């Protein structure tokens, strides 16, 4: 569908609405391209104003713009900012209550929204599709579009269906946005969204106001070196990126004890706690945020004066995106990276831990390919198999794409109901079928949606919809748990072992690719050449020495010598044997125990909150193979 804004309206006339006076580089080009009805790609470094590229034309087009975003926190911030500007925007994701979802769906169906932000896994939900029927569609925006490319630094399987989704619906234009993309990733996105080569707009990753420095330190003095940096004038507010959740808590506490107003932030915290900590940082009440990479995407804090990588970044893409959160206001800012001899081992362990073991793949595939229609809860399946959600989603997507599986419905695994009036009052005037259903429900106020579907003789999706409708009547309070889908395997589906072997090869290739990217960023950081020039060259742009990184300033310090890694002490080995004797299902296999000991646990251990155990990460200084040998010896298998 081709939409046209009012002829007297220009993009410049809408700048004051967003508190802007001028466009930043390439913003105007992107906006005009999509207003003209042509899809385009925008690769704009962090702080270059990606959001305005779709927010402004979305307001001009007078239709529903759908923005696909990977993080709920990012969507929340975007929606809050737009609502404050008086723009009709909402988000639709799993964190909303049933009442909130109903309100959003009503706003969509009544065509009163300019923008709706949707998580990729929610995009195909039937209730959302019903609400969008007949509503004029504006832009289809894919934020963090690098997640779609298998060669991107944070590939997400739930992004794979976005190109076909866009092509089968009458959107005015598609806009793919990302802060970083190599030439290979850009080519992927141009192909997947049918974008003309001339409609790809890209800026180089280097930012002249960021002074990039690398410091080589012994592990024992890393904390002190950070403290000295933070206490220097002009280096806060700052973001400190660390490897693990445990590192965030420990380092934040250490800084607090030295009168630094620091807080920790990671994905294991409750949503409300993360929001409170983020708001404190944005408001200037917290000077230093110690975080995993869960923090920062889409967070608009203009005056961050420094971004410190307490441990080396995982790739050139990750480094550019994370360090770019400094100096968004254009004022001088610092990017500092600490490197210690043990960092290479820790990174190698993280990469090796990303390779799922064969048993986890077998469990997941067996659950997905059960004969006959069956309901699968994402939470239960990833916990039981101990597969990361990204791997599980990739399995599911490929099984559906190749015809081995068909999704026949979506909803929730569990329901819970409570009548808000006496049952006799609720039943008054009901027909026989409704009365029978409500009697059954009153006797089974909590259970699995699939059981209700069987009892009522309806489909799983219909049962979910019926239970949700009950809540809308105001006579019942209905709540759901665990997002689930109903699946039906093909009679001709290949056996799980065949799929397992295929995915072992696929995941091994991805692991090698991750290792290659880490090796590249470490070479950039340690070979004594200009870091900014290396980054520009990596992303396919002309490069020349920047003159202000630590290599150009010739102030890089000598790399400390690697010391022999210490093995496990007898006391630690005894404590570990006692832990294993407790028979945690999430630590039953050598691979699982190894991940726990190097602080790279699977979903099962995280959901058991074992990351708070004293032995969590106790052998993170040793290579994977050495730790696996210890784990295998203790388990005896």
Features:
637 residues, six-stranded parallel beta sheet, seven-stranded parallel beta sheet, 26 helices, alpha/beta
Summarize the structure.
The chain has 637 residues and is an alpha/beta fold. The chain has 26 helices and 17 strands.
Name the helicity range. Answer: 40-55%
Q: Cα-atom Rg, whole angstroms?
A: 26 Å
The shape, in one word, is globular
Q: What's the mean pLDDT score? A: 90
Sheet with most strands: strand arrangement: 3-4-2-5-6-1-7
Structure commentary:
Strands 3-4-2-5-6-1-7 form a seven-stranded parallel β-sheet, sandwiched between helices. It has a six-stranded parallel β-sheet with strand order 8-13-12-9-11-10, sandwiched between helices. With 637 residues, the protein is α/β, with parallel strands linked by helices. It starts with 26 loop residues before the first helix and ends with a helix. Strand 12 (306-309), helix 11 (316-323) and strand 13 (333-339) form a beta-alpha-beta unit. The protein has 26 helices and 17 strands.
Record the SSE blueprint.
Blueprint: H1 27-35, E1 40-43, H2 52-61, E2 64-68, H3 72-84, E3 89-92, H4 98-109, E4 115-118, H5 126-132, E5 137-142, H6 162-167, E6 173-178, H7 183-192, E7 200-202, E8 210-216, H8 222-231, E9 238-241, H9 245-256, E10 262-265, H10 271-282, E11 288-291, E12 306-309, H11 316-323, E13 333-339, H12 343-353, H13 358-368, E14 374-377, H14 378-385, H15 389-401, E15 405-419, H16 423-427, H17 432-443, E16 446-448, H18 449-456, H19 460-473, E17 476-489, H20 496-526, H21 531-538, H22 550-553, H23 570-580, H24 590-597, H25 603-607, H26 624-635
Parallel strand pairs: 1-6, 1-7, 2-4, 2-5, 3-4, 5-6, 8-13, 9-11, 9-12, 10-11, 12-13
Antiparallel strand pairs: 14-17, 15-16, 15-17
Helix pairs in contact: 1-2, 4-5, 12-20, 13-14, 13-20, 18-19, 24-26
């Amino acid at each position: 569908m081709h939409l046209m804004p009012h002829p007297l309206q220009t993009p410049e006339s809408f700048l004051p609405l967003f508190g802007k006076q001028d466009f930043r580089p390439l913003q105007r080009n992107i906006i005009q391209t999509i207003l003209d009805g042509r899809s385009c790609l925008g690769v704009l470094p962090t702080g270059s104003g990606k959001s305005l590229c779709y927010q402004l034309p979305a307001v001009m087009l007078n239709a529903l713009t759908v923005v696909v975003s990977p993080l709920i926190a990012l969507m929340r911030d975007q929606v809050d900012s737009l609502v404050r500007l008086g723009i009709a925007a909402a988000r639709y994701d799993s964190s909303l209550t049933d009442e909130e979802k109903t309100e959003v769906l009503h706003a969509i169906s009544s065509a009163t929204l300019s923008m709706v932000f949707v998580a990729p896994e929610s995009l195909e939900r039937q209730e959302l599709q019903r609400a969008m029927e007949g509503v004029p569609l504006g832009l289809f925006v894919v934020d963090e579009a690098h997640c779609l490319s298998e060669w991107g630094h944070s590939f997400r399987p739930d992004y794979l269906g976005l190109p076909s989704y866009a092509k089968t619906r009458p959107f005015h234009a598609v806009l793919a946005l990302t802060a970083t993309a190599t030439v290979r990733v850009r080519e992927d996105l141009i192909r997947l969204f049918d974008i003309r080569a001339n409609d790809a707009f890209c800026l180089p990753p280097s930012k002249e106001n960021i002074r990039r420095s690398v410091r080589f330190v012994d592990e024992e003095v890393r904390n002190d070196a950070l403290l000295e940096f933070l206490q220097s004038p002009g280096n806060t507010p700052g973001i400190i990126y660390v490897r693990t959740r445990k590192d965030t808590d420990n380092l934040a506490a250490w800084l607090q004890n030295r009168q630094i107003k620091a807080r920790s932030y990671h994905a294991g915290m409750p949503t409300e706690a993360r929001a409170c900590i983020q708001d404190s940082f944005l408001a200037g009440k917290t000077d230093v945020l110690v975080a995993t990479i869960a923090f920062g995407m889409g967070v608009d804090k203009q005056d961050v004066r420094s971004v410190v990588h307490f441990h080396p970044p995982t790739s050139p893409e990750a480094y550019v995106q994370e360090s770019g959160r400094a100096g968004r206001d254009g004022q001088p800012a610092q990017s500092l990276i600490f490197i210690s001899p043990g960092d290479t081992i820790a990174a190698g362990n993280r990469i090796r831990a990303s390779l799922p073991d064969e048993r986890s793949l077998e469990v997941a595939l067996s659950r997905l390919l059960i004969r006959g229609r069956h309901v699968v809860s994402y939470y239960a399946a990833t916990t039981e198999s101990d597969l990361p959600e990204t791997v599980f989603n990739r399995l599911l997507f490929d099984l559906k794409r190749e015809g081995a599986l068909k999704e026949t419905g979506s909803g929730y695994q569990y329901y819970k109901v409570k009548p808000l009036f006496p049952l006799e009052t609720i039943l008054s005037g009901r027909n026989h079928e409704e009365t029978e259903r409500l009697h059954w429900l009153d006797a089974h106020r909590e259970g699995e949606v699939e059981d209700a579907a069987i009892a009522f003789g309806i489909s799983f999706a219909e049962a979910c919809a019926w239970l949700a409708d009950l809540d809308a009547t105001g006579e019942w309070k209905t709540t759901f748990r665990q997002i689930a889908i109903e699946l039906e395997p093909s009679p001709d589906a290949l056996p799980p072992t065949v799929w397992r072997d295929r995915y072992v090869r696929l995941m091994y290739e991805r692991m090698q690719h991750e290792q290659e990217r880490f090796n590249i960023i470490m070479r950039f950081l340690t070979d004594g050449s200009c870091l900014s020039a290396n980054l520009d060259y990596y992303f396919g742009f002309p490069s020349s020495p920047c003159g202000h990184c630590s290599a150009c300033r010739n102030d890089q310090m000598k790399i400390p010598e690697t010391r022999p890694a210490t093995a496990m002490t007898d006391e630690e080995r005894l404590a570990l044997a006692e832990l294993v004797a407790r028979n945690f299902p999430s630590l039953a296999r050598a691979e699982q125990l190894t991940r726990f000991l190097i602080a790279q646990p699977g979903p099962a251990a995280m959901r058991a909150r074992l990351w708070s155990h004293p032995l969590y990460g106790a052998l993170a200084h040793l290579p994977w193979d050495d730790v696996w040998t210890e784990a295998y010896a203790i388990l005896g298998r």
